[in-house]
Amino acid sequence: MIEQHLPVLVVVLPLIAAPLCVFLFNRALVYLFALTTCWATFGLSLFLLTKVLQTGPISYELGNWPAPYGIEYIADYFSTFVMSFVTGVGAVVLTYAPRSLSQEVDPSRHYLVYPMYLLCMSGLLGICITGDLFNVFVFLEISSLSSYALISLGRSSRAPLAAFQYLVMGTIGATFLLIGIGLLYQLTGTLNMADMAAQLGDDHGSRTMLVAFAFMTVGLCIKMAVFPLHTWLPNAYTYAPSVVTAFIAATATKVSVYAFVRIVYSIFTPQFAFDVHGLDVFLTAFSLVGIFVASMAAIYQGNL
Amino acid sequence: MELNSLLGLFNYWIVIVLMMTGFYIVIARGNLIKTVIGLNIFQISVFLLYITMGRMKEGTAPIIQETAQADQAYSNPLPSVLILTAIVVGVATTALALALIVRIREDYGTIEEDDILVLDRES
Q1: Are A147 and A248 in contact (CB under 8 A)?
Q2: Which residue of B53, B89, B117, B119 to mutate against A (max A Cβ within 10 Å)?
Q3: Chain A residues lying within 8 Å of B104, measured CB to CB
Q4: Per-window interface: A 243-262 vs B, CB < 8 A
Q5: How distant is the Cα of B44 from the closest Cα of chain A, in angstroms?
Q6: In the predicted model, is pLDDT for residue A231 greater than 70?
Q7: Residue A75 — φ and ψ, nearest 5°?
Q8: What ipTM was predicted for this assembly?
Q9: What are the tens digits of pLDDT across the range B75-92?
């Protein structure tokens, strides 16, 4: 019975546990509760992964509304792999959280770290599993908003400013994504990714589609911190508490890459992105510049 | 372009003007509060884009009534519903940004980005 609801359970478990954390004022108790939730979510996503490996992709209809109208969750090989990775990193990092927190975060704020952490994880998992484009935006904002709050908890006085800069950049990125989703909805009349791909078909000439693609690419590139749009990243990672840096650096940007891959491969098709518009050339160039510029900056960095 | 199509796209022109205004404020203004205001204008232009695409000429609210004519057109409610979610997200973002600005003000005593950078360099 419960096994059938596994795809949604993985997302909902940390989402429900997060507000419950706030009511547990005892620091050790909150830690144990959040830790249990994290490892349970990791177990659930591993279970989902083995199930998908046995039976093939699972489609789950939220609230039993059929797919093109209701929200569909798709657990396939790629998404369950990324989910296991995110929950695995989350669980391992949280296990070692108390030491970092006791040194870097004001004790009165400790109980706030755990709900934010769980919310962030829930948002990232939602991005992975959803088959609905607007849901991607909502989960992206859930994970981003909680990560802004997490970064601002750092003890250094520069942490709030770093979080603010990340907030401004991140909101612009998410709004760009929202514009792209809106234009695609205008073109196809659906938000379900698979249905959208079917509606778009092989028609690669439309101007609206190109504009939507451009907005979504730039929006997600901000979230991925691709070279010229990376400026929020160094400060945010430096001034955040180390638990938060370990978790966000390992998962948040990678999940954005996942979302981008999903959008290119399952909606726009690689022919449209790579053959017609040459996205691969731009991305390779920017990544190469990014690798070299970042390495040079690291070599000449005086503040370690 | 003909005058008719220019006027027909009136809402979209407003969307673009608002979007660019908001974007310019975010980039050009050093005051953190003004950055947040710019961010809000930027987001609101997108809300307008969504609401425009759901609206239909002579379309009414999508509630089926027995007295309605057979060829009655209805506006699409879905974009409005989507944008309700986006408005909630926007309000949460604004609240968080203002809270961060309060903390920045407590730490630095100013909300001008240039002054904060000077203070950072001195410390």
Answers
A1: yes
A2: B89
A3: 160-161, 164
A4: none
A5: 10
A6: yes
A7: -100, 100
A8: 0.91
A9: 888 888 899 999 999 999
